[in-house]
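Board notes, transcribed. Complex of a protein with IPE.
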Amino acid sequence: MTQPPAITTAHVACIMDGNGRWAKRRGLPRTEGHTAGEEALANVVRVAAKRDIGWLTVFGFSTENWVRPPSEVRHILGLHRKLFGRVEELNANNVRVNWIGRPFDEPGSRTPRAVQQAIAKAIEDTKHNTGMVLTVAFDYGSRVEITRAARRIATDRAPFDLASMTARLYDPSLPPVDLLIRTSGESRISNFLLWQAAAARVYFTDCSWPDFGAPQLDEALSLLTSRRA
Ligand code: IPE
Ligand code: IPE
Ligand code: MG
């Protein structure tokens, strides 16, 4: 398979879905699916960095996911600590870590201290990297983000326009999403980057997230290069 040409500025976003079903098909507990999903993400980060994608934003945990069984939530939180702890390989790939989600000091935030610390440490330990920016959306929901931006415009007495809104999103430096990928057969956006992905190409695949790797990413990226050609 020929590799698509390098895309130096693309912003690719992934809704990493299907961990639970992947595990169920194998007769494994859902937690095993999440463990495999974290490994798939580490691999996708390596591949994406080699493809010279500028920005990779992944949906790690949504504001809606807290209602899952406590043991599953605990397991997913542990995997985020593992992910944010992969500093050595992130540095080896020149990847800068970033995070979006409900700010820890704001009402509604439920992110445990240990995860907060893991996020802060990963950001600090990778801040000098100049390659791809990996943004992990954790305790993230787009409607809460947009509502908060609107509220901040009101308190700042700023003009109610597109630029003011964009400047008040969790991370105003995130460029518009070029390609939004969702795995595992669901054709839903599930409250992810509603503002940032307004003009994105959307790629749905039946592939489960734990099975998503280099060939699947390249196929998704070809959608982007075909548009640019
Ligand atoms: C995605 O996989 C991971 C998270 C939402 C945290 P799921 O856990 O949603 O897997 P399915 O959709 O039940 O298969
Ligand atoms: C979206 O997946 C959230 C993440 C991938 C973290 P879900 O599995 O939670 O989404 P819905 O509930 O099927 O829309
Ligand atoms: Mg799901």
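The helical segments are 19-25, 30-50, 70-84, 87-92, 113-125, 142-156, 162-167, 214-228. Residues 77 and 112 are 9 Å apart (CA to CA).
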